Amino acid sequence: MIPTTIEEQIEELIKKQENTEQIEIRYPQIIAEVRDFVGLFENLCQYGAHTHPITADLVATVVEIGWDVVQYYKEIFARRRPSVINPYVRPLIRVPRFAAYPSGHATQAHLVKEILKEILSCVMGDEERFVIEQRLDETAERIGVNREYAGVHYASDTHSGMCLAHDIWQVASKNPTFIRFIKAAQEEWARSEQSGLSIIVR
Length: 202
Known about the structure:
Shape: globular
Number of helices: 9
CATH class: Mainly Alpha
CATH superfamily: Phosphatidic acid phosphatase type 2/haloperoxidase
CATH architecture: Up-down Bundle
Number of domains: 1
Radius of gyration: 18 Å
Number of strands: 0
């Protein structure tokens, strides 16, 4: 359960940053995800721009959509970053100069998760699909929470990013042009399956 007040959420952030075991594990991820988190999904699902160009383009598209929508809401809510309010929060990365709410990384990661679930749904059996969707969920969640450990986001930023991604996806997934490209991406994966390129789930 997310604490109600900003002060309570900051206390939770400080506790996260005092958890040296988790910081040691997450720090390399946090640094890498500043510039690139899509690669985590590419590695998980074993695709790339050369093997699955339509899929890669769709992922890039939802990332850009997420960025644009998030910036709109950041300007509206103008929530200050945790370290601005409380100096005991020590960010592990350079603090972005725009507002905190909602989390862009969380929004974009959950959008990537949704588009990949939709694309891959046609090429996997039920058991394989369950496993890969669970891993996509875990990856998206971890990307968002890592920004909390980094000291640049509140828990409510992360949660709102996930909710915003869900709402964006509900609109995008009903768009006729988007549906057409999703179908093309699914056909791309079907061809890959036939040629021996497939996701290996262990």
